Structures are given as C-alpha cells and as structure tokens.
Amino acid sequence: MKSVCFITTVNHNVGDDFVREGIIYLFQSSGMISKVALVHKHSPVTAVYGRENLRNLRISRLVEPLCRAVNSKNRISDADILVQSGAPVYWCHPQTDGPHCADNEWFDPLIRKRFMPDRRERPFLNLAGGSCQRYHSDGSEIENCQKCKAYIREFFDTCDLTILRDKLARKMLNHAGRDAKVLPCTSIFARDRFGIKPEPGEFIVLNFMENGGHYIFGQEIDSERWRHEFISIAFEASRIGRAVVACHTPHEEKLAKVLVPNLERFLVPNNHLEFMKFYARAKWGIMNRVHGAFMMASFGKPAIVIGNDSRAKMIENLSLPSYYVSDVELVGVESLIDQARSRCDSYPEQIEEIRRHSRQEYENVLKSVLEK
After folding, report:
1. Which of 136, 159, 32 lies closest to 89, judged by CA?
2. Which listed CATH number (3.40.50.2000, 3.40.640.10, 3.40.190.10, 3.30.565.10) goes with 196-341?
3. I want to staple 132 with a disulfide (CB 3.0 to 4.6 A). Which of 43, 88, 92, 359 is the partner?
4. CATH number attached to the domain at 2-191+354-370
C-alpha cells in the first residue's frame, strides 16, 4: 500500500474536491493506496509540514525556497506517488496578452525544484487535466507560443501518465507534439467514495456566474443580456416546480439574491460532501458551474452547461449538451428546459454505462503504470 500526494486546491473550490475524491476512489477501490496528502497548488509552500495555512502566494514565493534550502520535511518528498489532480493545465491567450500555462505558480517550485531532483523512480500522474480557452477555440493559439509548447512537452514528458478530460486539451497537447487519452472527469466517481446514492428528485437546480464563467478572455459577452436570460430561465423553471440556485461561493449567493430573490439558495462554503448530498436530490439542472453539472449528472440527473470557455464542453463527454453563453437567446429558454427535462427518464441508465466504462478505462491505465 502506498501514499499519494495530490497537487490540488484545499478549501478553495468544491469542483476541485469532486475531481480529487473521484481519483482517490479509483485508487482505493483498486487497493493501490492507503494514505493521502494534499498540497494547495496556489500556495506551493503548503507542501511543507506546518505551513498548511500559509495561503498567500506572494509570501509562499518568499518562504518556500527557504524551506527547500533547509530541507524541511514535506509532503512531496514523503509521497510514493505524486498526482496533479484535475483543473485546467493547458491555456494560452495571445489575443489578449493574457495568461500562459507556462507561467503557473506550482510547476517550477513543486516539480522542477522539489520532485525531480529527488524523484527516486516515483510515479507522477497528471489526471483529469483540461483546457481553459475561449469557448470556440480550436487550440491553435498554442502554435505560435513557443513558451507554452515547451512547457506542455516538459510537463507531459515528466509524467508517467497523462489522462485529459476534454478534447481541446488533447488538441493543444497534439500541437506540442504529444498525445494522451481523453476520459470523462473523475468527479463522476466522487460520490462512490462516500457511498452517496441518488435520491428521488426534489427540485430543479440552477446556477449563475457573471458572464457565464470565470473569465472573458476578450470575448464580446453582453453581461446584462445573460442576467436577463438567467432570470427568464429561473422564471420558467419555477413555473414547473421548486427551483433552487446552487451557489458555489458567497459571491454567487449575493448575485442570486439580487437576480432571483424569490428562489431558494444553497451554499455551504467549502463543504463538498454537503454539495454532493444536495445534487443527489436534484431533478435536473441548468448550470454555469461545470462541476456542479458533473456531480448532478453522476447521480443520473441531466444537466445543461452554459459557459464562456472550453471547460463547459467537458459535459459533452457525459452525453449532455453545452452552449456558449451568447447563444442562449438563439437556442431559447424553453428549448433549454425541454432538453434537460426530456432526459430525466433515460439518463440514469446512460450515465451508469458511461461511469462503468470510464471506471474500467481508468483502472486499466492506472494499474498498467502503478503495478510495474
């Protein structure tokens, strides 16, 4: 039995928690690991024992090299297996002079400077990583960015296994001269780790994010129009039955209170178990939060994702649709609702087949790497 250290987020994003718990389930159900450690990737010094609560990146950049210099006891060195867990791993936005994946905050201190010099043949896995590009990107942005291409190759070559969660991430990897398998995000297995079962549907789940997602990336998005369209979706959904707005952050709860004050809101900050139990009781949903939709879908509850970047398309791996936020008016509110409601009877059987096949695929590739 081995110990595994996850490069993830901690008490930061329930979506990241869903992904990580799904990976842990796959490991533990196959009897591959016994001990789990977490590093908050946005503050790499949290790899050091006793520095778990140091969550400021600026301070981390000062303290982490000092801890490394004095060889402080840390989770990276203690682990038998290292896993980069979920999240976008490939992004490049030259149109807006925006961020590059090569400049992320965790790879250099944790991998180049801490893990690689002391690798000892230990496996490093990149599981359920994805892209974060404009919604309609074809991945070609990476072609003219030598920095990101070199980083993506280095990251891939350092790993013993890479499994991606969306097709665009694979295209970006291909532009860098490498290839990997695409499987549905491991968040669909998180419920299995805790034995949480689907429950009879009690409510319709809605979710709102400003502009339909985390970032705009220079796209022309009419934020006021999306607000009005969400209000229309909420109005029509509440005519059908009880509707609840899932709020993954306090900011989302404030927005929901302003936009649809008559609807119930659900928020238990940084408590992914409570969110799992909540989504288990859903009927169907229309979401901006991709991993809220993934969790709902894992229980056999169909969900549509409306988004503004490539992460929204992950849901298509679960045989569910995604739409660009600026296309909602064209698609129509009634059509969106009908698409979700019409799948309620057939989707539970469909998702179980997706989960069964995906679990087998994950377990096969994990065993091939970890049982050498």
Report:
1. 159
2. 3.40.50.2000
3. 88
4. 3.40.50
pLDDT digits (tens, 9 = 90+) for 136-145: 999 999 999 9
Token pair 């994010």 is at which residue?
Answer: 209
Tens digits of residue pLDDT in 153-193: 999 999 999 999 999 999 999 999 999 999 999 999 999 99
Instruction: Give the DSSP H/E element, type plus range, for residue 205.
Output: strand 203-206
Other Cβ atoms less than 10 A from the Cβ of 216: the count is: 17
Interatomic CA distance for residues 366 and 372, integer angstroms:
10
Cut 0.85: pTM above it: yes
Cβ density class 319-346: b for 16+ within 10 Å, e for less: ebbbbbbbebeebebeebbebbbebeee
What is the DSSP code (8-state) at residue 302?
A: -
Strands 243-246 and 264-266 turn out to be: parallel
Give me the residue spans of the domains in the chain: 2-191+354-370, 196-341
Is there a contact between 348 and 198 (Cβ–Cβ < 8 Å)? yes
The residue whose two tokens read 């809101």 is: 265
Element housing 37 (H / E):
strand 33-40
What span, in angstroms and rounded, lies between the C-alpha atoms of 329 and 207? 17
Those residues with Cβ within 8 angstroms of residue 139's Cβ, 6 or more apart along the chain or in another chain:
131, 133, 168, 171, 172, 174, 175
Using the CB atoms, write b or e for 160-172: b if 16+ within 10 Å. bbbbbbbbbbbbb
Q: If residue 38 lies in a helix (H) or strand (E), which one and from where to where?
A: strand 33-40
Pull the structure tokens for residue 178. 């490498």
Domains 2-191+354-370 and 196-341 equal at CATH topology level? yes
Contact between 227 and 221 (Cβ < 8 Å): no
Strand partners, 139: none
